[in-house]
Each structure stands twice: as C-alpha cells, then as structure tokens.
Amino acid sequence: MFTGLVETLGKVVQIEPIDSGIQFTIQTEWENPDIKLGDSIAINGACMTVTKFSDLGNLFQFYASFKSLELTNLSRLGEGSLVNLERAMALGQRFGGHMVQGHVDGMAIVISRKQIENEVEEFWVEIPEDLRRFFVKKGSVTLDGISLTVVDVKDGNIQLILIPETIQKTNANSWKKDQRLNVEVDVLAKYIENYLAGRQL
Hints:
- By secondary structure, the chain is mostly beta strands.
- It folds into 2 domains: about 10-85, Elongation Factor Tu (Ef-tu), domain 3 (Beta Barrel), CATH 2.40.30.20; about 105-200, Elongation Factor Tu (Ef-tu), domain 3.
- The chain is about 10% helix and about 45% strand.
- The chain is built from 3 helices and 13 strands, in the order βββββαβββββββαβα.
- It has helices at about 65-70, 165-170, 185-200; strands at about 10-20, 20-25, 40-45, 45-55, 60-65, 80-85, 105-115, 120-125, 140-145, 145-150, 150-155, 155-160, 180-185.
- The strands form 2 sheets. Strands 10-9-13-7-8-12-11 form a 7-stranded antiparallel beta sheet. A 6-stranded antiparallel beta barrel has the order 1-2-5-4-3-6.
- A hairpin with a 2-residue loop joins strand 11 and strand 12 (about 155-160).
- The two termini are about 30 Å apart.
- About 30% of the residues are buried.
C-alpha cells in the first residue's frame, strides 16, 4: 500500500531486456535508506519489486514483465528518464495522500499545461474512456504515482492544479502535451461500483 506522496526522484541508468520483460536499474537518493530484497516500490505509480540493490538502495534494480510494460508507461522510459519513487508505507506513519495500491489501471494523456499564477500550473488530462465513470470533482486520482485532487471533470478530461512543491519534487516538472501518464483511480470508487452492481442483481 502507498499514499501517493512521492519520496524522491530516480534516474534510469540502465535498461536490459531479459526473458519476457525488461530489467531496469534506477539511481536515486533516499532520505532514510532501508531497502531490502523483495521490497515494493512504486515506480511512476506502478508497484514493482526490488530484485537487486547496492549503496543502501541508492542503486537498485526491478523487473517489469511484458504485461506490466503494456499497461504502463514504463515501456516508454529511456536511459536518463526521471521516475517518481515511493516505498511501501510503514505501519504508524502519517497518511498524507490517499489509498494507493500501485495497480495501474491505464494511461492518461496530457492535453494541455499552462502557468496560471505564482508558478502554480494548470493541467488538463484525458482519461481512458473505460475509467471515466470513476472521476468526480474534488475526488482523488494517482498520476505517475502522485496523489492529486481532481478540480474539474469535462468531456472525459480532468483538470488539475499543481503547486510549485509538487512540480519541483516530482517528474510533473517534465510533463508535456501528449505525454502518457500512469493512472490509478480511487480504489474506493471501485468498491462502490462493485457494491452497487451487486445490489442490482
């Protein structure tokens, strides 16, 4: 389980096709490094498993299967790409974002970006058609692992307002028109839909 509060940025330093997927090597710096083999880390919001690490986790590897590559934007990464990183939440820590599973539901597309005031930026993002029913104004969404509030919903697109803190500390700083972002809808919306579908049987 994750919170959608990105801890740090990582840089892809090596990409190696193996078996039926790709092994990625990520370089980063953790504020409190404690990585172990088998740990779960959200990479752009996709839950992946640490398969090898060194330097207290400042250099680590994970493997993404072809299915994961198909469903996420990990397949679009190149050497030098920046990714959002969050370790699985620890028992007793503050829950500052929202419930994030690290299960990517699809890819959204950035359709516009503009600065509105004092380095605050507005984004409009197109949501895949099969996921649009889960979005409401003031609801939550995870994009590339970032917990965000949906400001408005219009014609299958959502409006986001990002403050400088978010832009500076995540890869949102590099988001541009037509870029694909991993999207995970609010799991509570999924449960509600499933519950209501059961009542209609």
